[in-house]
Design goal:
transmembrane helix, mainly alpha, 18 helices, membrane, transmembrane, 1% strand, two-stranded antiparallel sheet
Length: 420
């Protein structure tokens, strides 16, 4: 369970530092708009996303079991975080994140990292696609500039409210959002190693400011961003509060563990390496506890940012440390500039993120799988969208394990590389 940084620092050279520094700054420019957008979509203040990327991102790289893992807030948490904030308030989310961190520490201590291979893959795919659908629909308000006082958490109620607000459709907002998405796709294809996300969002947000378009920005909607993280504080712990938030903490811990270990497995395939799953769980636990101390969001390993780090030349956990420090520097020196980012641009960014999460290139393969796997995927998807993520995962895992027990010749799960 030794952190990977202790191994990789042996014989560390100046040339490795240069490669890690370039990769760290590059992935920070990708993480910056994503962290803001994820926090906003989760119903939190945008600065909470930056704090999470700084604190949790630093701890995951410092203590984790992967050479190249990049941690921070991810889209997988949006649904859970939005629900916890709506039901228990933001202080409830902080407490649930703290509890999830403790659960992950216990899981790492008891070497539960290998259990990831026993979770049915159709369940992972089903709730991932379901989360992607919820994320995409939650961004329609900002993408189209709809005048909605509050968007319900329930999926069908949300669609009804958005439909009724259709008369407030803003051409300017839709244009900024769509152009941002087109630019992101073009940058990704033309220069995949460069941080095209921040360039695309910066270009369209600059157009909003220069042309004085009637489009919402982070500043106009949330006010000025803070120029430094808040001082750490301990969550207020009470027995009744712990019992009330325990289900949310368990699902946050489950998502953090699954997402981080999946990301580490993908990274292993990309660099031909081997991560330490139990060290990774311990790092996720410490990161979520640290994030809660600073009032941040839940965090985990981020597949897209980890892949960006690898493609940009990151070799050791130092790249992840530099990524966190870079975001801190931006927060300290350029928070006013970040406040000019256009809301439709961030909405377009998250919609593309949701599309990539769903892995559309694999849908045909999902449908050609055995009937029980197809049923399990669709059941988990529907329950995620229409019911509750906790119910979806609980039912999906239980049924998946039951199906596996029925198949005496069942082979071990062979995870295919996600491309989220």
């Amino acid at each position: 369970m030794k952190p990977k940084i202790l191994t990789t620092m042996r014989g560390y050279t100046g040339s490795l530092l240069i490669q890690d520094a370039i990769a760290g700054v590059t992935v920070a420019m990708v993480a910056l708009p994503l962290s803001l957008a994820i926090a906003i979509a989760s119903g939190a203040d945008p600065a909470k996303g930056l704090v999470t990327a700084i604190v949790a991102g630093f701890l995951i790289s410092l203590l984790g079991g992967s050479r190249v893992q990049i941690g921070g807030p991810t889209g997988a948490f949006i649904v859970v975080v939005f629900g916890v904030i709506a039901e228990h308030g933001y202080d409830g989310l902080v407490m649930a994140t703290f509890m999830a961190g403790l659960i992950l520490l216990v899981a790492g201590y008891f070497r539960a990292g290998v259990l990831i291979r026993h979770i049915p893959e159709p369940v992972i795919n089903g709730f991932t696609i379901g989360i992607a659908i919820i994320i995409a629909t939650s961004q329609l308000k900002d993408l189209f500039g709809l005048d909605v006082a509050g968007v319900p958490a329930a999926f069908l109620a949300k669609l009804e409210v958005l439909w009724e607000a259709g008369s407030s459709f803003s051409v300017a907002s839709a244009l900024i959002g769509c152009v941002t998405m087109v630019l992101i796709v073009l940058f990704r294809r033309a220069a995949p190693k460069l941080p095209g996300l921040i360039v695309a969002v910066a270009c369209t947000s600059a157009c909003v400011a220069i042309l004085d378009l009637p489009v919402e920005t982070i500043r106009s909607q949330f006010g000025e961003l803070p120029s430094a993280p808040a001082w750490p504080t301990l969550p207020v712990v009470g027995f009744d509060r712990v019992i009330e938030l325990l289900p949310s903490a368990v699902i946050i811990a489950f998502l953090a563990g699954v997402e981080s270990l999946l990301s580490a497995m993908v990274a292993d395939r990309m660099i031909s390496g081997h991560h330490r799953p139990n060290a990774e769980l311990l790092a996720q636990g410490a990161a979520n506890i640290g994030s809660s101390f600073f009032g941040g969001l839940p965090a985990t390993g981020a597949i897209a940012r980890t892949a960006t780090n690898i493609r940009a030349g990151g070799k050791t956990p130092v790249a992840g440390l530099i990524h966190a420090v870079t975001i801190l520097v931006v927060m300290l020196l350029a928070s006013r500039l970040v406040g000019y980012m256009a809301m439709p641009a961030l909405a377009g960014l998250l919609i593309l993120t949701a599309w990539n999460m769903s892995e559309p290139q694999k849908w045909r393969g999902y449908l050609s799988a055995r009937k029980s796997d197809v049923f399990l995927l669709f059941l988990t998807l529907v329950l995620t969208v229409l019911a509750d993520l906790t119910v979806a995962i609980g039912v999906g895992v239980a049924l998946g394990l039951a199906f596996r027990l029925q198949r005496s010749n069942s082979a071990a799960s062979d995870w295919s590389e996600p491309d989220r």
